[in-house]
Amino acid sequence: MLDNFLGIPSSGWIAIAIWLTVNVVPWIYSLFFVHKINQSGVERWGAKKPKNS
């Protein structure tokens, strides 16, 4: 197993992965809900009408 990759020790990669997960997952979750709100056609959000009606 590699002791380091790109000059970062393997324990550092675990910390980077946790940091990225903590920062990226909420953004993806938020974008999913903004997309659902946009698809619902709620006027006050400035969304367009639903495509299926």
Structure, described:
This protein is mainly alpha-helical and 53 residues long. It has one domain. 58% of the residues lie in helices and 8% in strands. It contains one helix and two strands, in the order ββα. It has one helix at residues 10-40; strands at 4-5, 8-9. It has a two-stranded antiparallel ribbon with strand order 1-2. The mean pLDDT is 80. Keywords: Membrane, Transmembrane, Transmembrane helix. The chain crosses the membrane at residues 12-34.
Mean pLDDT: 80
**Unreliably modeled segments:** none
Class from helix and strand fractions? mainly alpha
The radius of gyration is 20 Å
Instruction: Assign an overall shape.
Output: rod-shaped
Describe the sheet with the most strands: 2 strands, antiparallel
Transmembrane segments: 12-34
Keywords: Membrane, Transmembrane, Transmembrane helix
What are the SSEs and their pairings?
Blueprint: E1 4-5, E2 8-9, H1 10-40
Tag the structure with descriptive keywords.
transmembrane, single chain, 58% helix, two-stranded antiparallel sheet, transmembrane helix, 1 helix, mainly alpha, 53 residues, membrane
Short description:
The protein has about 55 residues and is mostly helical. The chain is about 60% helix and about 10% strand.
